[in-house]
Write a structure and sequence with these properties.
By secondary structure, this protein is of the alpha+beta class. It has ten helices and twelve strands. Helix 2 packs antiparallel against helix 10 (388-419), helix 3 runs antiparallel to helix 5 and helix 8 (342-351) packs antiparallel against helix 9. Bound molecules: alpha-D-mannopyranose. Residues 433-547 form the MRH domain.
């Protein structure tokens, strides 16, 4: 039984090996082997209605419209999209004349299998780049013999491929590191945002508290009645007015008394003249005018004399007319001396009270005072807003407001940063601020990631801005990749736009378009000025590895 099993298994294995190794017609790749299995007829791949005897395969005559009967010759090369001869060929009717096969299949044992354009088959040239086994020149046209070089070419390629793969894996590793670093940086910003949100909440509360404290300090300041008689309260003003008025009246009194005394003296003198006149005139002299004057005087002298102040009254007036500073009737200086404010007095009252009652009373009294001031009953302090308490409260509030607005500004910047495009996986966040440069001609060119591009003169310290980072973009490229790997390859690439650099004389503001390709380390390898002051940089960086397929560095990609 065991023996039978082994036999059966070995039978199946043998059949599969036979099937796998069933000879395919020359030039057929393994993926097309299924079309060439029949040992008697061949069906054209794209035109199944056309069937041919197997003998007409590779007979150097193109039978099938899609060229599938000539996989190993150049007979159908004129159909090949890879052949220049097909240019201008027109499809006949509904028949599909598009070449069914990608080219002549070179096994390239020891290296990578590959397809060669049909035009290259038996053209007398060894196409070692694509067909290292030389099988494309199987007919040895003109005596050309292409020996199999796959072993050495394959070895060399393998070496390079290993390097390339190592470099790619290093680049991928580096990108991973960058992404991890970017995530860390992002997290840091997120933490900052969270912290700032909390800080701002606290600062907001603090501002509110300090606003209330300032209002209270100002209210208390208004509530502080100043009883001293200096410039200030209504009472002090009244005192000053009264003092001035009394002084004015006193001065007037003195002056009027002087005028009265002068008048009195003149009347006495006049009366003495008239008395002498009456006594000395001659009544026998018949002068009517003189007689009338004497009679009038006698009438005047007979009338009751009005009281023009007696000595007692005059003494009183003398006293009244003396300045208060002499008499001490009103001690103005007493009124000028500072007194305890009512608040202080009340504090003294409170000192006799238990602490809880003291605080309660204090608050009530302050409230009452403010109410009285607001209603014009008490005079507010003219020093409101200038006391140390108010100044301190205001300074504390302003400082808290400044801190709050700084935090809000920072929060805005961090939040904006979190919303910014830093490329796939946020990767450019990790590179932000780092720069790469390259000497070229008379300048050193510099690219700072997500910052600025610059042209620095080698002769002097002059620097020219070639643009500031604006956005991350994409661009299609189709370039060769040289052996040193410093090339863009072909396909879609990540690009960075830098705009609005230094103005170019008689031209635009300088700008730079930076096209990126995957490399192990950051490397600015090419700068061109495509138009006046419009620059293009080609830069390698691990940041873009795996973001787009880099073609062009593998022989198979050529097809
Ligand atoms: C400088 C450089 C050049 C640019 C000219 C334009 O020489 O920035 O790249 O073309 O100015 O005047």
């Amino acid at each position: 039984m065991r023996r039978l099993e082994i036999l059966l298994l070995s039978g199946i294995a043998a059949r599969s090996i036979l099937a796998a190794e069933a000879p395919r017609p020359r030039g057929v790749g393994p993926e097309f082997a299924k079309f060439y299995k029949s040992s008697d007829t061949f069906t054209c791949i794209s035109s199944p209605s056309i069937r041919l005897p197997v003998a007409r395969l590779n007979d150097d005559f193109c039978d099938c419209p899609d060229g599938s009967d000539e996989p190993g010759t150049s007979a159908c090369a004129h159909l090949s999209s890879l052949s220049p001869f097909t240019l201008g060929s027109t499809p006949t009717g509904h028949v599909n004349t598009t070449l069914a096969l990608p080219g002549y299949y070179c096994k390239n044992k020891g290296h990578q299998p590959s397809y060669v354009p049909f035009t290259n088959v038996n053209d007398g040239v060894c196409d070692y780049q694509l067909c290292c086994d030389g099988s494309d020149e199987w007919a040895k046209v003109g005596g050309v013999k292409c020996e199999d070089k796959c072993k050495e070419i394959g070895k060399e390629w393998k070496k390079k491929d290993e390097q390339r793969q190592k470099s790619q894996s290093n680049a991928a590793k580096r990108r991973k590191e960058l992404v991890a670093e970017a995530a860390k940086l992002r997290q840091e910003v997120e933490v900052k945002v969270q912290t700032l949100q909390t800080v701002i909440q606290g600062q907001g509360l603090k501002v509110k508290g300090l606003e209330a404290a300032l209002a209270e300090a100002e209210r208390q300041e208004r509530g502080r009645v100043v009883k001293k008689r200096g410039a200030g309260g209504k009472l002090s003003m009244l005192v000053q007015l009264a003092k001035d008025r009394i002084e004015e009246l006193r001065e007037s009194l003195v002056e009027v008394r002087n005028q009265r005394d002068t008048g009195k003296a003149r009347i006495a003198e006049l009366e003495a003249i008239l008395t002498t006149f009456k006594e000395e005139y001659n009544p026998n002299f018949n002068d009517e005018g003189v007689k009338r004057a004497v009679r009038s005087w006698e009438d005047y002298a007979a009338r009751d004399k009005p009281a023009v102040g007696d000595d007692a009254k005059d003494r009183d007036l003398d006293e009244i007319a003396k300045p208060d500073s002499e008499t001490g009737a009103i001690k103005w200086s007493e009124w000028d001396e500072p007194e305890e404010g009512d608040v202080d007095v009340l504090y003294k009252i409170e000192a006799y009270l238990p602490v809880p009652a003291r605080d309660w009373i204090d608050q009530k009294l302050r409230d009452l005072r403010s109410l009285l001031i607001e209603n014009g009953v008490l005079a507010p302090s003219t020093e409101a807003g200038s006391s140390k308490e108010v100044e301190d409260a205001r300074n504390a509030l302003n400082a808290a407001k400044d801190s709050l607005s700084n935090s809000q500004k920072q929060l805005g910047e961090y939040s904006e940063d979190l919303g910014k495009d830093y490329g796939a996986d946020d990767v450019f966040r990790a590179l932000k601020g780092q720069c790469v440069s390259k000497n070229s001609g008379e300048y050193t060119y510099e690219l700072c990631w997500l910052g600025e591009t610059k042209q620095k003169s080698k002769k002097n310290s002059q620097q020219t801005s070639m643009g500031k980072f604006v956005s991350i973009d994409k661009v299609m490229v189709d370039d060769e990749v040289p052996p040193d790997g410093k090339g863009l390859g072909s396909g879609e690439r990540v690009a960075l736009r830098y705009e609005n650099g230094q103005h170019c004389w008689n031209g635009p503001n300088r700008s730079t378009f930076v096209v990126l390709a995957c490399t192990e380390t950051d490397d600015l390898w090419k700068i061109t000025e495509e138009e006046k002051c419009v620059y293009r940089m080609e830069v390698g960086t691990p940041a873009v590895c795996g973001m787009v397929e880099k073609k062009g560095d593998n022989p198979k990609d050529e097809l």
